[in-house]
Amino acid sequence: MSILINRRRIMQASFAIAVATLATPVVNASAQTAGEVRVLTYGGQLGKYVIEAYAKPFEAETGIKVIPVTQDFEFAQLELMQKTNSVTIDVGPMSQGAALQAAEKGYLEKIDYSTFRKEDIEGLVPNVKQDFGVGFFFYTYNLVYNTKKYPADKARPTNWAEFWDTEKFPGVRYLVSGQYGSEGPWEEALLADGV
């Protein structure tokens, strides 16, 4: 099955599957009323893209009203919703690390993939289909440098070991800090160390 040919169906399927993921198992509370779903979509331009690419096609196909919630969201907020039985969203984005933590604490509902069309499930890239969520975008960290500081006639960093070498290649580095436990420069540091 070609991902390019079925891009819209894949996005709709992953959004539909994701809609079922947030729940409070202890009391089975939900933010939604009949016929609608409250979806955390991020804010700013990314939130607008999520609404256009996922929410609107899902709404058009299913007739279920999507209420976009465009705000920042952290694991602590999900935990507070669970503990106070005050669920304000039905589905939302999380990092893989946060999702694993939330699933471990029983904050997420396991997805029953048997309730979705076979062609939609087959259209998902295999590693995005998880027990408690569906990955909906890919990203990568890339090693880049300022070509004015490192022109073609000068040595340039070409691997992660050189990226970390501030004596040979002085200057500012920018990576996600890792303060939340999953999006840190762990892989880049391990690659630099020869792992």
Q: Name the CATH superfamily classification of the largest domain.
A: Periplasmic binding protein-like II
Domain module count:
2
H-E order: HEHEHHHHH
The N- and C-terminal alpha carbons lie at a distance of: 35 Å
CATH architecture classification name of the largest domain: 3-Layer(aba) Sandwich
Name the beta content range: 5-15%
Class by alpha and beta content: mainly alpha
Which regions contain 5 or more consecutive residues with pLDDT less than 50? Answer: 1-17, 19-30
* Contiguous helical run count: 7
User: Radius of gyration in whole Å, from Cα?
Assistant: 20 Å
Helix coverage percent? 25-40%
Tally of strands = 2
Please name the CATH topology of the largest domain: D-Maltodextrin-Binding Protein, domain 2
Across the major sheet, the strand order is 1-2
The CATH class label of the largest domain is Alpha Beta
Silhouette: elongated
Short summary:
The chain has 195 residues and is mainly alpha-helical. The chain is 35% helix and 5% strand. It has a two-stranded parallel sheet with strand order 1-2.
